[in-house]
């Protein structure tokens, strides 16, 4: 009866990946006598059979270590020439592995679902720093990103106040504004701009001007995926000033000069970038990741292929790939509107 | 139609209290035209009619500020000579206040319930750094405490390893071990000791010895309320070494010498103490506190007296005082057992 | 005998400005019976006589607060129409002030020197986040900036390793590379690029490639003022690929695509920006700033006009404006070469 | 010509030890072709010839890692039965080592001096978290300890204010009060108590009462080595209340009840303990430690036996063991008096 499993981490890295791996190995070994290997660089390692041993000594001290010791990539399991369920089954057979734990985001879950339907023993652990997976209340990494962004706002606020400037901070969030929403609320931002909700440059400037009139320095937090409705596409700001301006840098670098031109308030942009996804995870993310890793060992012991582990309230539950992928979790209108009323 | 309300903070302080106040004032003013005053030093200010104005300018920048600008105390609303619902009703009348928002823990909720039953318009916001209120998935302040304790473990680990010592860290948690559990998991502790679960000194030493044999330095996290079953009462360690030893300092200071004597491993105690409840709240706690504060304004606008706001999953909900007080939220056996299997 | 003085903060803000103000007010009041006002927004407040009172209650709790409660600006004291020593003397006379404490960088020191030569009672406190004032071993704010940049490198390293990417971090330092040098050493960067030392793109790529060959992910820290010798001017990268490429964003955003093109290693840029100069100062900066503020009260009590306070070793000393301005403190060749040998 | 050297770390651990080791290995290998081994657990490893290899791959990523990968102990090189210069010379010969780098505090420097006089090729790197070595402006680890203590004060302040309590924080410093002085200044403490300067309980209570009268919550920072003049010895508080009270726990736990009894102000003690010496070093300490490590390779290449590397201003210099040990660096009276005048 197979007790050997392979773990992979796929897509963008997140603080907490190593804690998932550690949680699975520690509990799996101790409780179920499971053995683990790690596939290198995501699906690439699975497709090519490139593995590293994962035992108690390897995962020692991993819970506070950012990134993933397995490496990650954007390589897909059906990618030619060696991908596909048939070849993967051979790899698993050759490595004497009974199943796969795929830690990843929406793309990873979709691929996992297809592999599962094609007969591969596979379970999933949800991972997205943007927190946009509907299967789970929170994804690990998100909390760390929010804390980093919040600290950045705290820092920008004092320099903004000293110079009476408007500060614009761009945080991650291509399709969902969770990091912007949470860090913006935490940091007391005067406007929070998210992909889910267009706001006109006039509205934004109205908020900024209102803050300034109260004698304060405006703080705007914007998710990278926010689009001005005036922007004809992601790569220009056409319509705002009558000609196509090439979009370089982030949306903060588009917004800052527009705000300055229109309000007359000196405005500076900061793009937080990759530091949001690196480094020591928060305690919250380590706990969540460890619990998910431990619950995964129960799931594979039960041969619960085709499912993911997820957080609901304070419980770790199981969700089918189908259900997990049914909805994209964006910021609900009512939650945004509740905070929007105090902007400005 | 009354739109004036008083806010008080009672019991031990928590990071996030100020964010609750700020959230309530900002939304209440903007959406409902509510006005707020703050009672000074908890119930004392309500009983004695000592208030400060709370408006937008007062709550400016409060979300990242620890403690409570209102002050707090352990004074109770029925405390003689001026306490009691009748007198409090007069105070509210004199101050032209339509209701009370009481931010506090179990004691505060009990007192609020009694006041409500005695005819006072009162709602509650749950607050306990120990996270032991069943009404809500998490209480604000808890997350900050966990992060502080986790960082302490990270620091203790390197000094423990360098000296090959066993390190014992005592964290808060008189009746519930949530901070110990979460920070212990996050920090990769080799044993976590909580009030809910007695563990014998033999068991603890077995874990410590096992870690040492693997060449690592044991890390033990203990909640202040943990008791050795051998201890005849909270103030002695009688039975362990045949005579009553006076219990001074925290439980960590009891455990460390016992571990050292029995295992021969040099052992050091650290009592984290008050730094767990002070200072800048985490982003998570600021968001939770702000959301609770904002939801409170809806509750009082609806005249939902006798209820508290609470977190369920990712939603802010309402819970009656009765329900909120029905159960004390301790660490469930299965959640403790799941992590206990990997101790040592 | 005049005991009233005005304080101003000029130029870019720095963590520690408030601690200087607090240190001066607390010691000045207590020891010398001095009284202080603060000029608003740098020289602007002095020229226009716009002041705020500064006493013990105002400076309460200021040492850990970033920015400057006085505000700052780039306005100069000789700026028309109201500037100039004659007008300033009238303002001081009208406000009954005996002298001025000007906290600022090189420009502020130059202007102070001219005012002093024109008869104004003025002393200086050196301030530059770039640490490029020769008068003093370290300037406050620099330490905080280094810690923030170091933490960013720590974070970028884990995400770089997970993705096998080269990470390029741009930190402050227009004319001096101190922040890059210190944070780069602290973070274990594989290449540190500073304004004082041109390095060819070939050399940079050689370091990056060498790191990659050892199986590690290259980390490059670059000061904003670094210039590739191949760049004909600050606004283009002409010569590198045969055509003028408009220079947008920081130097990191120029370097990253060049490194990627030439080495084939995926490379990402992060521009740290304004978060380096905001927020809570480190303990080191608070101590330095407090000591400088306290020493300033001795200096003005001694009527030591025309001098600045400065750090030498562990002592606070006095330096004439002339001497302070004689040299720009850049990174010495030998200090750079010592670390350069271990690049790659 | 010998190019092989052994490194040891002795005494209490400090953040930065690993960065010294890394700096030495990286520069020594690259510039001089030196090879290194590490003695395990301080002098114990030297006396017993227990070593680990130290090359570039081993020191990878060490600069931000607290503690020492070599282990440390309080074992002395002349400790029986195997210690002494003659035996150590044999060990070095057997291991083909040309000299020793001893990283440690005053005891280590004394032992190194004796070994040097007995013919051993040895150099030193100063290490003391208490910063009490006169040879050097600052020792690494001290800066990290100050930052940790400063953050603790920041946290205690908000909880103190909320409850109107006096908070007493005990920090490290058995014979020198540097950590208390620096963190106390940084945190804006109302009284700083150091071993160098007795202060009566009456004086302390006078400061505390004065703060309270101004409506603030008193913050007292005390070094572990501070003694009340009323205390007949370190183990009792006799004389204060007429009977010998056993001294258990730290001095903070002695002071807090005394302050409370005498002032009537609720007072709480926190003993920071071992977290001050563990965990990730600050950037400042990593730079200092790395520079010291690199300078050590120059020193051993020059065969400068009998000397230590040290920081003077911003320069790394060399100091003979004699000179290094001539004076103990305590807080000078004038520096203490300068800050003492603003206590209360």
As an assembly, this protein is homotetramer
Intertermini distance of chain A: 63 Å
- CATH fold naming of the largest domain in chain A: Rossmann fold
Q: Which whole number gives the mean pLDDT of chain A?
A: 93
* Major β-sheet profile of chain A: 5 strands, mixed
CATH class of the largest domain in chain A: Alpha Beta
Count of individual beta strands of chain A: 11
Query: What count of domains describes the coordinates of chain A?
Result: 2
Number of helices of chain A: 11
Poorly predicted ranges of chain A: 234-247
Query: In the CATH hierarchy, what is the architecture of the largest domain in chain A at level 2?
Result: 3-Layer(aba) Sandwich
Rg of chain A, please?
Answer: 22 Å
Strand order of the largest sheet of chain A: 3-2-1-4-5
Kindly name the structural category of chain A. Answer: alpha/beta
Biggest interface pair, residues each? A-C, 43 and 43 residues
Query: What is the helical fraction of chain A, as a range of percent?
Result: 25-40%
Amount of beta strand of chain A: 15-25%
How would the global form of chain A be characterised? elongated
SSE string of chain A = EHEHEHEHEHEHEHEHEHEEHH
Pfam families (chains A, B, C, D): PFK (PF00365)
Subunit structure (chains A, B, C, D): Homodimer or homotetramer.
GO molecular function, one term (chains A, B, C, D): metal ion binding
Site (Important for substrate specificity) (chains A, B, C, D): 107
């Amino acid at each position: 009866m197979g007790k050997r499993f392979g773990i992979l981490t796929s897509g963008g890295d997140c603080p907490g990946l190593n804690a998932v791996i550690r949680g699975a190995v520690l509990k799996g070994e101790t409780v179920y006598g499971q053995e683990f290997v790690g596939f290198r660089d995501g699906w690439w390692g699975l497709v090519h059979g490139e593995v590293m041993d994962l035992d108690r000594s390897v995962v020692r001290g991993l819970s506070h270590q950012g990134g993933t010791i397995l490496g990650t990539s954007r390589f897909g399991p059906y990618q030619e020439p060696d991908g596909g369920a048939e070849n993967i089954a051979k790899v698993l057979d050759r490595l004497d592995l009974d199943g796969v734990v795929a830690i990843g985001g929406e793309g990873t879950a979709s691929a996992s679902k297809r592999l599962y339907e094609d007969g591969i023993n596979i379970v999933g652990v949800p991972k997205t720093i943007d927190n946009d997976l509907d299967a789970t209340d929170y994804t690990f990494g998100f909390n760390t990103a929010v804390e980093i962004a919040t600290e950045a706002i705290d820092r920008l606020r004092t320099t903004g106040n000293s110079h009476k400037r408007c500060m614009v901070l761009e945080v991650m969030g291509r399709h969902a504004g969770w990091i912007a929403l949470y860090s913006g609320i935490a940091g007391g931002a005067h406007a929070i701009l998210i992909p889910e909700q267009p706001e006109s440059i006039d509205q934004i400037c109205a908020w900024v001007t209102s803050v300034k009139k109260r004698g304060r320095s405006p703080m705007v937090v914007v998710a990278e995926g926010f689009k001005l409705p005036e922007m004809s596409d992601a790569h220009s700001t056409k319509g705002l000033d009558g000609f196509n301006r090439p979009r370089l840098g982030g949306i903060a670098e588009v917004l800052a000069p527009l705000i300055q031109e229109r309000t007359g308030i000196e405005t500076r942009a900061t793009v937080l970038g990759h530091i949001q996804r690196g480094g020591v995870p928060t305690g919250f993310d380590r706990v969540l990741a460890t619990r998910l890793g431990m619950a995964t060992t129960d799931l594979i012991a039960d041969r619960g292929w085709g499912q993911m582990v997820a957080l609901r309230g304070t419980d770790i539950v199981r969700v089918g790939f189908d259900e997990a992928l049914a909805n994209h979790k964006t910021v609900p209108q009512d939650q945004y509107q509740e905070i929007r009323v105090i902007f400005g």
